[in-house]
Amino acid sequence: MTPDPSDVQALFARHYFYFAMLATLGALQIAVSIGGYPGLWVLPHRLGTRMAGAILIIAGAALFFMLPLWVDGPWAAGSVEADSSTRQWGRADWGDLGAARNVNDIDGGLSGTGQATWFPLAALIAFCVSITAGAANRRLFPARMARMTPISPGTDASEGIDDEDGIALLRRRSYPGALKTSWRRFRRELPADAMTLLAQADRWSVAFQVWHWVLRRKSR
Amino acid sequence: MNPIDREVVIWLNGLSGNVALIDDLARVIATDYLMPLVFSLAMFGMWFAGRSSGERLRFQHWVLIGISSIGLSNVSVVLINLAWERTRPYAVLDEIELLFYRATDPSFPANPVAIGFAAGAAAWMANRKFGYWLFGAALVYGLSRVYAGVFYPTDVLGGAVVGVLTTWGTTYLHRLFQPVTNLFVRLTRGLALG
Questions:
Q1: Tens-digit pLDDT profile for residues B64-82
Q2: Which residues in chain B are closer than 8 Å to A95, comparing Cβ atoms?
Q3: For residue A209, what pLDDT is reported?
């Protein structure tokens, strides 16, 4: 009997979510180790964090593509062929693994929209895990984490950009502290920032054109 | 049908069936899950990878353009599909040994390749080396689908052109909506996310 597409879709969504969660955590770890934000590192060591990131991505992919060996799905041994509408429910064998996940979305595979829904959720959880790990590292290894400030804040003054908010603060603080400072500054500076950004906007900008039209009307 | 397209897809797909490991690798790369996730991870990672404020702002600017262009390249592919419904190689050529499921949408231009090249073009603008890696990944993705018998080489070429042109067009769209996107980046900084 061919599987019900809604059962297949629920299974694919769950497995894709595991894959996306591990992979986004891995990608985040590699990125923050490159950027130098210890407040989001899972390990109190730059190279270790980067290696952990790579391992997480590989583990996520391996888990996703090997789960058919242990979990029943539309990949029963012997039924895995290119045509995904004739699959049987069951566990795959090693020879079927390459094609097991090739299921058309009309037969229950996860569509692009489905992936676009699960990916941000996975990324959010990965970010929360990183925040927690970063805070734990600061608590458990305070001396080591204090030495992990690779770029001192404010070094971008030459670029005309103050580095004292946003994820840049994660070089010296854990996420809750960075959030508190950043949010306070955002609220304080929003009106001035909005006006500056509007004044500096490209001449293509609709908002810029409307703003200048209003200014011209006022000056008449 | 373009004779070069026909010859290349028959030749490349004809290589399948000889080494099981290569066939399995092509099937895994050709899935709907692996490479699209790689492109999404590239955009996600780039958001956080800037070493200085200036670099971070530049990366984040291109991430927003990259994400928008991924969505818009999907729309572009659908619009082109409405104008020209090209039948898939496995449905036309008897010599094709299908390694992938029977896709129901037209083959030109290759949607997954358009997405890959859209992300790659945005990444290339932010960091040349990283962009080349993504272009390479998108090309391998497209070729794996030609090997699997679901795309012609010109579908892959068309997808690449659509992806790059969409990113180029999105930069103008981005200028149109300034300073909304800049304010969005400012908001993410306020939330210590950017």
A1: 999 999 999 999 999 999 9
A2: 20
A3: 83
Would you list the DSSP string of A107-133? GTPPPHHHHHHHHHHHHHHHHHHHHHH
pLDDT in tens, B33-51: 999 999 999 999 999 999 9
Structure tokens at B125: 């603008």
Query: Angle B128-147/B34-48 helices, nearest 10 degrees?
Result: 170
Residue A1 has pLDDT above 70, yes or no: no
Residue contact A206–B186, C-beta within 8 A: no
Mean pLDDT of chain B: 95
A31, A178, A200: residue with CB nearest B192: A178
- Distance from C-alpha of B66 to C-alpha of A60, rounded to nearest angstrom: 24
Percent of chain A residues topping a pLDDT of 70: 93
CB contact at 8 A, B31 and A98:
no
- A156 has a chain B CB within 8 A of its CB: yes
Q: Cα–Cα distance between B154 and B140 in angstroms, integer?
A: 14
Q: Give the C-alpha separation, B127 to B113, whole Å.
A: 20
Complex ipTM over 0.90: yes
Three-state SS sequence of A18-67 = HHHHHHHHHHHHHHHHHHCCHHHCCCCCHHHHHHHHHHHHHHHHHHHHHH
B120 Cα to chain A: minimum distance (Å)? 16
Residue A4 in this model has a pLDDT that exceeds 90: no
CATH architecture of B3-190: Up-down Bundle (1.20)
Per-domain residue ranges for chain B? 3-190
Chain B contact present for A27, CB below 8 A:
yes
Q: What is the pLDDT of residues A65-119, one digit of tens each?
A: 999 999 999 999 888 887 778 889 999 999 889 999 999 999 989 999 999 999 9
Average pLDDT over residues B160-169: 98
Which residues, in sequence order, are bridge partners of residue A90? A73, A74
Is B28 close to A198, i.e. CB distance below 8 A?
no
Question: Chain B residues with CB inside 8 Å of A188's CB?
Answer: none
Q: Which residue has the tokens 């036309």?
A: B92
- Nearest-neighbour CA in chain B from A143: distance (Å): 23
How far A111 CA lies from chain B's nearest CA (Å)? 8
